[in-house]
Amino acid sequence: MTPADIAAxxxxxxxxxxxxxxxxxxxxxxxxxxxxxxxxxxxxxxxPEPTILLTLRAATMSSHAxxxxxxxxxxxxxxTPEAAAVREAAEEVGLDPRLPELLGRLxxxxxxxGFRITPVVGFVPPPLNLVPDPREVEEPFELxxxxxxxxxxxxxxxxxxxxxxxxxxxxxxxxxYIWGATAAILVNLARILRGG
Length: 196
What we know:
Blueprint: H1 3-11, H2 13-17, E1 36-45, E2 51-57, E3 68-69, E4 72-74, H3 81-93, E5 101-105, E6 109-110, E7 115-124, E8 137-144, H4 145-149, E9 155-161, E10 164-171, E11 178-179, H5 180-194
Parallel strand pairs: 1-7
Antiparallel strand pairs: 1-2, 1-4, 2-3, 2-8, 5-7, 6-7, 9-10, 10-11
Family: Belongs to the Nudix hydrolase family.
Keywords: Hydrolase, Magnesium, Manganese, Metal-binding
Pfam families: NUDIX (PF00293)
């Protein structure tokens, strides 16, 4: 899939209509007044074989410690999701804020920890020359876009959480466990790019 194909898909209302709002049950029981707006950058790195930039969060973080995520965080007062996503990527992994070519948004995703995440997709040209902040990121790494485009790659799994059986997506990776909000956002991206 070429960058032009990716950009066309993300700008196509028919492709976006294939996914609709993200379905989740993670946020059940979280009071609406306690929902925190957040944004993540979904960086598609334009290598000859494109990849998605992800991060392994530092084990010392107060929320989602040691989990795989996209660069991102809280939306500050007066910020758009796009501005927050680019700012957080600069703070977390040292991504030059002039690099991302923003393409659009995926549907919001709410988490059980009280965040409403707006994913912002953008192209990023290599080389990245990242300098991660060790307080926030243990390791940036890349997932091949070919894996995201493989309809057989994501798995649906179940686990008990807060006394209920929950279902969630998991993406294959040789070293990291990609699940939760990050996995759900990747599923939505895959559905748009694959056309179903």
